[in-house]
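#structure-requests
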Amino acid sequence: MLLMTPKQLQHAIDQLDLSQRRAARFLGVDERTMRKWIAGNARIPEAVAKLLRLMIRLKLKPEDCQ
């Protein structure tokens, strides 16, 4: 399992040049869920962690994934 901490999530969306709102929309969650992830009040799904890490590694932007 590839756990992602809230700090790592924030860093990932910063690296992808996304706001929390835009990241939430891209990931298909509401802004409240994103805030919970960032605050550490909810577990960040493994699929989200994998997707964001892969996007960073491959230098992809959300518009490249549509």
